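Lecture 7 notes: from sequence to structure.

We start with a single chain of 182 residues. Read the sequence below before looking at the structure.
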Amino acid sequence: MTELNHAVFLWFNLDGGTPKIWLDLARFASLTLPQWLVVATLAVAFAGAAPARQTAWRALLSCAAAAAAAYALKPLFHWQRPFVLGLGTRWVEHAADPTFPSSHACVFAALAVALLLAPARGPRGWLLKALALAAALLISWSRMALGLHFPLDVLGGWCIGLLVALAVQQAWTRLARRGSGA
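Now the structure, written as tokens:
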């Protein structure tokens, strides 16, 4: 499994011959896009229409719970980052802390799944869902492209993010039913 994980990582990891636009896209996806997504979700949570506010709060709760889960799990796994093992090219500075699961993949998978679970309200709702999924996939790709994570780190992050978003959705629904007396 390790050999396959390393081989797939090297396929995703950008090298010195990669066109600059791909490197710029990976840096944007890893360093800027996550901040924009959080700010946009917070803006909707505070200033959006009522149904959108509720979806945004559920998505933010999913993100926070996913981040907590990822940080709680990291010390349990002593998997090293690719650059620590001398594999691939690292394009941004990063601590040599444990790599599994990818916190970026975990948090933004949770965000995407939380939005996918929300009722779609017309074409804009479906577009938002597609954009959230695309953003989460782009962020996940960028972590490997920049030499920071192996594919199994990202896959583990997605699995945790999915489970956390589903758990938050279920808890939110139960609390809403209790609050309405149903």
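The two ends are 49 Å apart (CA to CA). Keep this in mind for problem set 3.
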